[in-house]
Amino acid sequence: MTSSNTSPAPANPYLVLGAAIVLPASGHVILGVPVRGLQFLFFMVILAWVTAKIAPPDASFIGRHAGGFLIYALSILDAYKLARVRHALWVHKAHDGSDNSQGGIAPHM
């Protein structure tokens, strides 16, 4: 029995980015860290509620829920960053096994 050092390819970072934009915490679920996504959702709801309570009555919907939108934006960035790091590590590990003396950098032609 031979063991392979190749791990399965991680999720495409752009797929994770799109999922995180469309549905909060879904990017984290795709990455296999649903608890982290749930934490972002929890703080999204809490901060949206807090800012809705302290915002002036004439503020827009975005202004009344600015705290929730802030956490939403941070969760998108976090999911994308995590996906990019995992993908870069996977690519680096795939190139480690190659016999290329240039470290994976191709010369210009």
Strand residues, percent: under 5%
What number is the mean pLDDT? 88
Please give the oligomerization state of what you see: single chain
- Helical segment tally? 5
Residues in helices, as a percent range: 55-70%
How far is the first residue's CA from the last residue's CA? 42 Å
Largest sheet: none
Order of helices and strands: HHHHH
Q: What class do helices, strands and sheet pairing give?
A: mainly alpha
Compute the number of strand runs. Answer: 0
Global morphology: elongated
Uncertain stretches: none
Please give a quick description of this structure.
Helix content is 66%, strand content 0%. The protein has 109 residues and is an all-alpha fold. The model has no long low-confidence stretch (mean pLDDT 88).
Written description of the protein model:
- The protein is an all-alpha fold and 109 residues long.
- 66% of the residues lie in helices and 0% in strands.
- α1 runs antiparallel to α5 and α3 packs antiparallel against α5.
- It is elongated, with a radius of gyration of 20 Å.
Main features:
0% strand, 109 residues
Sequence-ordered SSE layout with sheet pairings:
Elements: H1 13-22, H2 26-31, H3 34-54, H4 61-64, H5 66-96
Helix pairs in contact: 1-5, 3-5
